[in-house]
């Protein structure tokens, strides 16, 4: 009876040992599996992190390039603005003084008479003038005379055409002024209004001439007295 009990006890111990062994083995497998999953998770995490960093770096590089491009465009725009700012401004009527000047040259022949218009920059800034002057004849007492101004070449000078003339302080531009004296519908002028830019601002100079039909011919402004040789 005692021997039988000993066998039973021994069997129970063997069974318990087997169960413990099975539990230990299962735990080891579980731990291995968990370790494998953690490792895979870390690898994925590292890969994702690197990819994210690369993407951010690429975006950052793109942003830098874009900003650089925008800066270049802004610099170009500023450069263009600077070039425009450096362009010579048009002469203001108030800084210009117009006179009649023969420039030491006689213009007379075949019932034609002529002289030069001279406009001087009296300001302290360089400016530009172009085109044709505005003209108006006046009689005694500054009464208005109907005036016709013809633009182009005159009997004595070839028209240089409208083009900008740069005038530094104290510098002058010139235009040829010519009329005929055949006695046809003679206008008895005493004064001449000269508007250098064609505006309402003008100089009034003495002009005691008899001329046909109140008609004047003039060339565009030039940097020197225009006269055919």
UniProtKB/TrEMBL annotation:
InterPro entries: DUF4232. Residues 1-32 form the signal peptide. Residues 48-63 have a biased composition (Low complexity). This is DUF4232 domain-containing protein. Keywords: Signal. Residues 91-221 form the DUF4232 domain. It holds the Pfam family DUF4232. It comes from the Bacteria. Residues 64-85 have a biased composition (Polar residues). Residues 36-91 are annotated as: Disordered.
């Amino acid at each position: 009876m005692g021997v039988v009990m000993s066998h039973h006890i021994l069997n129970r111990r063997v069974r318990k040992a087997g169960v413990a062994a099975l539990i230990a083995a299962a735990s080891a497998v579980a731990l291995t599996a968990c370790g494998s999953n953690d490792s895979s998770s870390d690898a994925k995490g590292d890969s994702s992190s690197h990819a994210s960093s690369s993407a951010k770096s690429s975006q950052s590089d793109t942003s830098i390039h874009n900003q650089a491009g925008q800066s270049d465009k802004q610099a170009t725009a500023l450069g263009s603005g600077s070039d425009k700012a450096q362009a010579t401004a048009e002469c203001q009527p108030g800084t210009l003084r117009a006179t009649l000047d023969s420039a030491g040259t006689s213009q007379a022949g075949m019932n034609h008479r002529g002289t030069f218009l001279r406009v001087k920059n009296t300001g302290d800034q360089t400016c530009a003038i172009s085109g044709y002057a505005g003209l108006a004849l006046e009689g005694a007492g500054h009464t208005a005379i109907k005036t016709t101004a013809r633009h182009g070449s005159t009997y004595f000078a070839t028209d240089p055409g409208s083009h900008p003339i740069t005038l530094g302080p104290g510098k002058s531009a010139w235009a040829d002024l010519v009329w005929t004296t055949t006695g046809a519908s003679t206008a008895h002028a005493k004064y001449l209004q000269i508007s250098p830019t064609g505006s309402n601002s003008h100089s009034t100079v003495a002009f005691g001439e008899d001329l046909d039909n109140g008609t004047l011919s003039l060339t565009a402004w030039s940097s020197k007295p225009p006269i055919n040789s």
